[in-house]
Amino acid sequence: MANTIRIKRRIGGATGAPSTLGSSELAFNENSGGRILYYGLGDNSFGVATSVIAIGGPDFAVTATTNANLTGPITSVGNATSIASQTGTGTTFVMNTSPTLVTPLLGTPSSGTLTSCTGLPISTGVSGLGTGVAAFLATPSSANLATALTDETGSGALVFANTPTLVTPNIGAATGTSLVLSGNLTVNGTTTTISSTTLSVADKNIELAQGSVTEAAADGGGLTLHGLTDHTWNWVLATTSWTSSDHINVASGKSYYINGTVVLSATSLGSGIIIDGGTF
Fold first, then answer.
1. Buried b (16+ CB within 10 A) or exposed e, 132-168
2. Where are the domains of the chain?
3. Could you tell me the pTM of the whole model?
């Protein structure tokens, strides 16, 4: 079956133009005495046309009143006034050039090794923790180590109370060369920043907006790549579709599919595709 492109048409009823057309949309009236081709002229970027004008057909006649735009060569299409009334060159998300830096609250580490850390305060008021042990942990030294060992019971081992009181350490601004966790990591905050050259994720599925229970909560979610301008791939609730801010470039030999059927390749439409403008 050959591919077909159809424009909007009227095959019964009165002659005359359609009440509205989309920008650049064509429509043809097939009724006798009014067989005229119409064009949707001007809009605010592919919406409803500003006006509907007649441009041709067996019953078309050019007049200075009804078809002034077609009495001479067409040098431009569009509405210069509507273009001039727009402001800016696009929508850009601008970050604060001087953001406020805050100290992260890491909470209570459950396991793992924290290396090359400085400024680790130790309280001497923790139940079951001797003053010698606290002094050694706060300022490690051979003298404090000897005091710490003799301060506790047992033979060279640190013995804590059977039911010690646990506290959440306030480690301040921790610095180090590496952090290795053997368990889960939970970050509770507003912003998480990762300053690394390569982000490698072993999981094959990345969840965004986790916990959302409405479509409105997911509106605008997706990915943003910063460059001279932002390049985005977002889900838009108004159109219930994934939306790209840029061109989609399919590799050589690849095609677009819908429900497992090819609809568009580099050289042709899929078999049986019909583009129909409808009626008016």
1. bbbbbbeeeeeebeebbbebbeeeeeeeeeeeeeeee
2. 1-86
3. 0.43
